[in-house]
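Structure first, sequence second, as always.
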């Protein structure tokens, strides 16, 4: 689709959305920002950043800002299943109030067990009411793996002991869009790791509707908010890869844009944590970095307001946005080597991922050989002098 055509489509979508009634008449997203000290300039800078994140041209920035201000027309239900609440923490646990958290605090007020003031029967009433009232308009976001084991006590919600699986099925029936937030909801996560005693399953197992997977342990706040804004802008699901991950945020490997990629190409590796290579910022592949096998935008977006990410902090990527990473990516401090072909990527995986093992080992060998050759030449020159 050409940008001009896309611009018209988004403009029409926002004009239609602006006719929807606000969920709360007493407050707007704009007023929430004003109360929390977010001025127009900062808001537009944020909108420009989100526009770039979605790979849209800068001309879409005003539309992105308008979309953010219209999020109070869209009801959001966020369900907690078997999880650590890390995905919610990623979204709202920042050093100071951010536009990301303000927006999501505001539009998530229909139901979010951690953020909402209601509890007990009142909270459950809010959920049931939202499912009925907003049928066909609801944005459903699910955090955590969903147990479907033999025991009815693995995960129950509310005074009536409704299972988490039943909650997910009921909410999915009313949803216009469904997002699995984090690796647990996307692929089962640690709950589904062998031997998976609770038979934890991803959200996609509980509905016939398309579920957009937003994996990560946790995903960055930009990836979470970005999915909602994409839906607000286009009223449609984004382009997805074979694992139903949005290509705009999971379309490239960590390795491709890693800040240590030059070290990899030069054959400069950390041999063990704390050695001289580690102090100099060498490549972490030999101590287990799974960046060459992992699709995510962590190397671009980072975490905590773009402050840092695991590789910058000195530990390799553990592949947390890949299916079944607890079983397939371990041990986390050792390279996968030949295990890649047996356990990590099966039929239907990206072709580039299928070939990465051979390419990686070849590149590593070439890099090490070149590095050794250069070192040898320098050494012989010194001896001659």
């Amino acid at each position: 689709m050409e940008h001009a055509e896309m611009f018209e489509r988004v403009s029409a979508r926002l004009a239609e959305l602006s006719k929807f009634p606000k969920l709360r008449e007493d407050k707007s997203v704009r007023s929430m920002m004003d109360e929390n000290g977010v001025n127009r300039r900062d808001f537009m800078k944020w909108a420009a950043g989100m526009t770039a994140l979605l790979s849209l041209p800068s001309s879409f920035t005003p539309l992105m800002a308008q979309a953010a201000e219209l999020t109070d027309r869209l009801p959001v239900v966020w369900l907690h299943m078997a999880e650590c609440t890390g995905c919610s923490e990623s979204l709202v646990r920042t050093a100071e109030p951010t536009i990301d958290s303000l927006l999501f605090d505001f539009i998530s007020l229909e139901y979010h067990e951690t953020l909402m003031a209601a509890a007990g029967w009142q909270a459950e009433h809010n959920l049931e009411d939202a499912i009925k009232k907003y049928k066909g308009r609801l944005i459903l976001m699910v955090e955590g793996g969903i147990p479907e084991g033999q025991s009815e006590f693995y995960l129950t919600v509310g005074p009536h002991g409704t299972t988490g699986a039943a909650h997910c099925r009921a909410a999915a029936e009313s949803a216009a869009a469904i997002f699995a937030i984090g690796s647990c909801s996307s692929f089962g996560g640690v709950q589904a790791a062998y031997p998976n005693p609770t038979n934890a399953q991803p959200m996609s197992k509980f509905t016939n509707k398309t579920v957009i997977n937003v994996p990560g342990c946790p995903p960055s706040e930009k990836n979470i908010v970005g999915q909602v804004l994409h839906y607000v802008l286009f009223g449609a699901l984004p382009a997805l890869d074979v694992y139903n991950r949005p290509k705009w945020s999971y379309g490239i490997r960590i390795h491709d844009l890693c800040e240590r990629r030059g070290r990899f190409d030069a054959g400069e590796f950390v041999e063990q944590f704390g050695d001289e290579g580690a102090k100099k910022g060498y490549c972490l592949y030999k101590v287990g970095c799974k960046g060459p096998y992992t699709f995510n935008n962590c190397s671009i977006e980072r975490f905590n307001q773009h402050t840092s990410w695991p590789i910058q902090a000195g530990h390799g990527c553990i592949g947390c946005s890949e299916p079944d990473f607890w079983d397939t990516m371990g041990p986390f401090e050792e390279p996968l080597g030949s295990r890649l072909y047996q356990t990590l990527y099966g039929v239907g995986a990206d072709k580039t991922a299928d070939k990465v093992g051979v390419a990686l080992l070849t590149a590593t060998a070439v890099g090490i050989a070149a590095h050794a050759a250069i070192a040898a030449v320098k050494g012989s020159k010194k001896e001659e002098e």
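Margin note: The chain has two domains: 3-250, 254-384.
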